[in-house]
C-alpha cells in the first residue's frame, strides 16, 4: 500500500458517542456541584444515564485520485458518521483522516437556504457556504440557473418555491462545484425520476473528469451504476472493501438472506416463563409459493402458552424494509379484539394481502405485549424477498416507497 | 482553474485533537466571501421582513437618548460641556448599543447556525464575524443619523463643538468596540454551549453594566483618583465611550484612556477565540 498516492487516507478511525448524556450543564448545576451536591451527572458517572456507542471502530482505507467509491451499509452502520468525519463536521475519537485537495461535501441539498431571500440571492449564499468563491459563482451563474430550470422565479423569495424547486435549485448549485474530492450523501434520493437521471449524469461526469468521489447510498442501483469500488460498513466496522459487484453481491446476500422458517427447542425458545415462541414461518399463498407483489403472504407463529389464561396478550407484527424503515405495524387486538387464551400449543396466523408490499426485501419483528407493555420482542424473526409481479404500465425501474398498495381508482 | 490547482497541495488532516493554540484564522481569510455573503443574508433577511426594521434601528437610540436627557438631564447639568443633551447621550448610547448587540448576537451564533454547522464545514469563526459586521452596518447607520442631527444643531444653534478634529479617530474606536464585543461574544458563545443559562445572565449583565459606564453621565463628573472612578474604568468600554464622546462632540481627547481598552480587546478576543475553537469542535456531537 503506497500511502503517498492516496488522496484520502483513513487510519484507525474510531468515533465514540455517549447516548443519552449531553455536555449541557446549567450554571446552577455546577454551582450546586461546588457545594457538594452530587446528584448532577459527573463525567465519571455519566454511564449511569448514558450508553456507550462506538459509531465507528478501527476504520482504515486509502482512496486513490480519480476513484469513485461507494459506501454502503444498513442504517446505523456508521455511514453518516463517516460522512461527517470526511466533511469535517465532527472529529474522530482517535485515528486520523488525511485528505489532499479541495473537498466539497454534500450532506443535504440547499444547506443554508434562507426563505426570505430570492432564488438568485440563495444561489450566491449556498455556493459560498459550499466553499465557492464569489467569482466562481458569478462565472457559473448562467449554467446553474439553466440546470435548475427556475428562470422565471429568480427574483421570487424561495419561501414561495415548491419543495421540488428548492431541491432542484440546491442541486444545481452543488452540481457546479469543482472540488478535487466530492463527498456525497444520498441527496439523489429526492426529486422526480427525470431529475434523478440528470443528477446521476452529472455525478458521472464529475467522476469521468478524474476527480475522486465518495458516494454514500442505500440504493444499490445507483451504487452499481456509478462506483467501481465499494466500502461496506457493518456495526461501525469495515466489513468489506473491494470491487463493486463483489461487495454488493455479498451485501445483498447477507442483508436479504431469506429466512422463511424458524423453530426453536424448548430450552432456547424466545419468550418468558408464561409464553414461548417455538416456531415462525412466512409463506406465499399461491400455488407456485413465489413471493410476488401480487400474492398474499401469510405469517404463522406457533406459541407454547405456559400460563396465560386471561385475555391479556397482544401480538404486534412490525414489518421493515431492507432500509430498516418500518413499512407498517399490524396489531392483533386492533384487528380481532381480545379473547381468553387456552393453555398449551397455539397457532396464530396473520395474512398480508396481495398488492400491498413493494418489490424488495422485508424483515419482520414480533412484539408480544402484556398489560400494554412489552412482554418480549423477537427481532428479525423472519425475512423474505418480494419480486415484481406481472405489471401494467411502462415503468420498469424499482418503484419507490416502502409499500406499493393497489388502491381504488376511479375515472 | 489556477486557484484550484493552487489548492491541490492543500492538505486536510482530520484528527482527534489539535494543540490549543491552533486556530483557523488563516482559513477565515480564505472564506472571506462567505463572511460577506452571510452579512448580506443577515441584512437582507432583517430588512426584507419589515419596513420598520431599519427605521426602528434609527429611532431606538434617538428615543433612548431623549429619555436619558429627560431623566438624567439634571445629573450632568453644567458638565455636559456645550453639547445639546440629546447629542451627548446619543454619543454614548449608540456605541454602547453596538457593543451590547454584538455580544448578544454573537453569543447565540452556535445555536442560530446549528442547522448549518451540522451539515457543512466552514471555519466556525466565520459565523460570529459575519454577525459582528452585520451589526456594524446598523451602527454606522445610527452614526450617520447622529451626524445629520449634529449638523442640524450646528446650523440652527451655532454650537461649534459638535464635530471635532478627533473625528478621524472614529474608525479606530469602532474597531476597538467591535473586537472587544466580538471577543466577549464568542467567549460567551463557547461557554453557553456548556452552560445554557449563561446567555441570559450575560445579556442582563451587559444591560446593567451600561449604568456603571459613562453612557449616562460624563466621566468628568467622577473625581479623578477616586475609588468609584477606578471601578468604572475597569470596564474597558468606559474609555472607549469617552473616546467616542471626544470624537463625536469635539471634547478634548484623553489618549491614555484608550490604552487599557485596547489591551483588553486583544486579550479577551484571544481568549474568546481559543475557547470558541475548543468548544465548537464537539458542538456538532452535542446538539
Would you mind describing this structure in some detail?
The complex is a heterodimer of chains A (411) and B (287). About 3% of the residues of chain A have low confidence. In chain A, the strands form four sheets. Chain A has a six-stranded mixed sheet with strand order 5-6-7-3-8-9, sandwiched between helices. Chain A has a four-stranded antiparallel sheet with strand order 10-11-12-15, with no helix packed on it. Chain A is of the alpha+beta class. Chain A is built from nine helices and 17 strands. Chain B has 287 residues and is mostly helical. The N terminus of chain B is likely disordered. Chains A and B meet through helix 1, helix 2, strand 4 and helix 3 of A and helix 1, strand 1, helix 3, helix 7 and helix 13 of B. Strand 4 of chain A pairs antiparallel with strand 1 of chain B.
Low-confidence stretches of chain A: 36-49
Q: Which percent range describes the beta-strand content of chain B?
A: under 5%
Strand segment count of chain A: 17
What is the helical fraction of chain B, as a range of percent? Answer: over 70%
**What characteristic shape of chain B results from the CA principal axes?**
globular
The count of helical stretches of chain B stands at 13
Please work out how many helical segments of chain A DSSP would assign.
9
Quick summary:
The complex is a heterodimer of chains A (411) and B (287). Chain A is an alpha+beta fold.
Keywords:
heterodimer; A: 411 residues; alpha+beta; 6-stranded mixed β-sheet; 9 helices; globular; B: 287 residues; mainly alpha; 2% strand
Secondary-structure blueprint of this entry?
The complex is a heterodimer of chains A (411) and B (287).
Chain A: E1 6-19, H1 27-34, E2 51-64, E3 68-72, H2 79-86, E4 94-100, E5 103-106, H3 119-129, H4 134-148, H5 163-175, E6 181-184, H6 193-208, E7 212-216, H7 220-226, E8 229-234, E9 237-243, H8 244-255, E10 261-263, E11 275-284, E12 297-305, E13 314-321, E14 326-331, H9 332-336, E15 344-352, E16 360-370, E17 373-386
Parallel strand pairs in A: 3-7, 3-8, 5-6, 6-7
Antiparallel strand pairs in A: 1-2, 1-4, 8-9, 10-11, 11-12, 12-15, 13-14, 13-16, 16-17
Helix pairs in contact in A: 3-4, 3-5, 4-5
Chain B: H1 2-8, E1 11-15, H2 25-30, H3 32-49, H4 52-71, H5 85-106, H6 109-112, H7 114-117, H8 126-157, H9 170-194, H10 198-209, H11 227-234, H12 236-249, H13 256-286
Helix pairs in contact in B: 3-8, 4-5, 4-8, 5-8, 5-9, 5-12, 8-9, 9-12, 9-13, 12-13
Amino acid at each position: 500500500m503506497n500511502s503517498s498516492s492516496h488522496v484520502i487516507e483513513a487510519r484507525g478511525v474510531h468515533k465514540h458517542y455517549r447516548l443519552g448524556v449531553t455536555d449541557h450543564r446549567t450554571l446552577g448545576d455546577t454551582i450546586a456541584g461546588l457545594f457538594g451536591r452530587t446528584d448532577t451527572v459527573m463525567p465519571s458517572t455519566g454511564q449511569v444515564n448514558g450508553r456507550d456507542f462506538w459509531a465507528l471502530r478501527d476504520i482504515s482505507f486509502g482512496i486513490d485520485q480519480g476513484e469513485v467509491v461507494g459506501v454502503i451499509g444498513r442504517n446505523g452502520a456508521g455511514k453518516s458518521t463517516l460522512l461527517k468525519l470526511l466533511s469535517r463536521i465532527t472529529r474522530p475519537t482517535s485515528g486520523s483522516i488525511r485528505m489532499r485537495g479541495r473537498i466539497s461535501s454534500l450532506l443535504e441539498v440547499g444547506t443554508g437556504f434562507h426563505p426570505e431571500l430570492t432564488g438568485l440571492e440563495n444561489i450566491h449564499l449556498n455556493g459560498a457556504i459550499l466553499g465557492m468563491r464569489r467569482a466562481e459563482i458569478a462565472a457559473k451563474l448562467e449554467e446553474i440557473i439553466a440546470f435548475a430550470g427556475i428562470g422565471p422565479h429568480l427574483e421570487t423569495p424561495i419561501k414561495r418555491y415548491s419543495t421540488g424547486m428548492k431541491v432542484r435549485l440546491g442541486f444545481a448549485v452543488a452540481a457546479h462545484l469543482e472540488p478535487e474530492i466530492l463527498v456525497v450523501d444520498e441527496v439523489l434520493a429526492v426529486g422526480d425520476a427525470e431529475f434523478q437521471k440528470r443528477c446521476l449524469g452529472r455525478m458521472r461526469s464529475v467522476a469521468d473528469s478524474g476527480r475522486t468521489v465518495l458516494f454514500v447510498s442505500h440504493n444499490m442501483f445507483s451504487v452499481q451504476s456509478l462506483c467501481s469500488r465499494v466500502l461496506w460498513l457493518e456495526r461501525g466496522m469495515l466489513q468489506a472493501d473491494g470491487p463493486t459487484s463483489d461487495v454488493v453481491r455479498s451485501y445483498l446476500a447477507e442483508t436479504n438472506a431469506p429466512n422463511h422458517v424458524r423453530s426453536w427447542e424448548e430450552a432456547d425458545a424466545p419468550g418468558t416463563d408464561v409464553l414461548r415462541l417455538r416456531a415462525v414461518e412466512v409463506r406465499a399463498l399461491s400455488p407456485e409459493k413465489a413471493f410476488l407483489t401480487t400474492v398474499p403472504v401469510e405469517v404463522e407463529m406457533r406459541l407454547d402458552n405456559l400460563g396465560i389464561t386471561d385475555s391479556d396478550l397482544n401480538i404486534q407484527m412490525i414489518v421493515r424494509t431492507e432500509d430498516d424503515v418500518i413499512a407498517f405495524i399490524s396489531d392483533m387486538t386492533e384487528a380481532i379484539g381480545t379473547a381468553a387464551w387456552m393453555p398449551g400449543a397455539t397457532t396464530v396466523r396473520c395474512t398480508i394481502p396481495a398488492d400491498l408490499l413493494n418489490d424488495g426485501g422485508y424483515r419482520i419483528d414480533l412484539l408480544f405485549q402484556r398489560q400494554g407493555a412489552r412482554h418480549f420482542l423477537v427481532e428479525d424473526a423472519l425475512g423474505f424477498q418480494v419480486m415484481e409481479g406481472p405489471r401494467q404500465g411502462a415503468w420498469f425501474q424499482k418503484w419507490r416507497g416502502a409499500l406499493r398498495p393497489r388502491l381504488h381508482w376511479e375515472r | 482553474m489556477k486557484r484550484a490547482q493552487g489548492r491541490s497541495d492543500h492538505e486536510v488532516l482530520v484528527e482527534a485533537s489539535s494543540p490549543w493554540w491552533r486556530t483557523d484564522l488563516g482559513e477565515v481569510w480564505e472564506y472571506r466571501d462567505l463572511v460577506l455573503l452571510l452579512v448580506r443574508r443577515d441584512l437582507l433577511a432583517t430588512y426584507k421582513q419589515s419596513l420598520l426594521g431599519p427605521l426602528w434601528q434609527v429611532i431606538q437610540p434617538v428615543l433612548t437618548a431623549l429619555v436619558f436627557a429627560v431623566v438624567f438631564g439634571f445629573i450632568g447639568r453644567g458638565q455636559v460641556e456645550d453639547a445639546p443633551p440629546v447629542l451627548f447621550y446619543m454619543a454614548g448610547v449608540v456605541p454602547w448599543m453596538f457593543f451590547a448587540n454584538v455580544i448578544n448576537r454573537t453569543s447565540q451564533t452556535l445555536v442560530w447556525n446549528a442547522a448549518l454547522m451540522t451539515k457543512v464545514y466552514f471555519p466556525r469563526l466565520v459565523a460570529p464575524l459575519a454577525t459582528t459586521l452585520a451589526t456594524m452596518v446598523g451602527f454606522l447607520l445610527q452614526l450617520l443619523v447622529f451626524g445629520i442631527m449634529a449638523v442640524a444643531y450646528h446650523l440652527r444653534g451655532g454650537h461649534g463643538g459638535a464635530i471635532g478634529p478627533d473625528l478621524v479617530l472614529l474608525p479606530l474606536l469602532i474597531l476597538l468596540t467591535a473586537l472587544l464585543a466580538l471577543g466577549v461574544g464568542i467567549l460567551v458563545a463557547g461557554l453557553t454551549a456548556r452552560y445554557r443559562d449563561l446567555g441570559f445572565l450575560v445579556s442582563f449583565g451587559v444591560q446593567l453594566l451600561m449604568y456603571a459606564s459613562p453612557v449616562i453621565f460624563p466621566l468628568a463628573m467622577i473625581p479623578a483618583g477616586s475609588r468609584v472612578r477606578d471601578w468604572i474604568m475597569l470596564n474597558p468600554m468606559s474609555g472607549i465611550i469617552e473616546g467616542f464622546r471626544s470624537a463625536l462632540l469635539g471634547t478634548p481627547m484623553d489618549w491614555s484612556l484608550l490604552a487599557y481598552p485596547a489591551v483588553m480587546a486583544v486579550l479577551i478576543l484571544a481568549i474568546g477565540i481559543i475557547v470558541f475553537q475548543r468548544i465548537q469542535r464537539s458542538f456538532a456531537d452535542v446538539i
